[in-house]
Amino acid sequence: MSGFSYPHTCPLIDKEIGRAKGDLTTYARDLLRSYNIEISGKEMLLAGEELFSALSDIFEKTRKTNEDMRTEAHKQIVALEAENMELRALLYCQRMAS
Q: Which tens digits make up the pLDDT trace of 17-33?
């Protein structure tokens, strides 16, 4: 066996975090404009950052869950490889005995 054969997802998570920052900034701007509140570009970016900050734990928990799943998959693969080797050795011994 060659190990856990799935591409790393952290780059994808990072990309989506960046997208979320932009989406939240746009959402903050549109929400404020819907109430006829005009803000500067700097204030808009700050509002988006504040929204993102409130949600950033969600992204980091997603990243942690991803890491935990990879670690557990690796442990299971190692255990299965060891079991595979034991079964191969047992079959070899049985073949040699017959």
A: 888 888 888 887 888 88
Cα–Cα distance, 69 to 74 (Å, whole number): 9
Largest CA distance in the chain: 88
Summarised one tens digit per residue, pLDDT across range 32-71 is: 889 998 888 888 778 778 888 888 888 888 889 988 998 9
Intra-chain end-to-end CA distance of the chain, in Å: 28
pTM over 0.70: no
DSSP states of the chain: -----S---HHHHHHHHHHHHHHHHHHHHHHHHHTT----HHHHHHHHHHHHHHHHHHHHHHHHHHHHHHHHHHHHHHHHHHHHHHHHHHHHHHHHH-
Look up residue 48 and give its two tokens. 């988006």
Which residues, 6 or more positions from 81, have their beta carbon under 8 angstroms from its beta carbon? Answer: 1
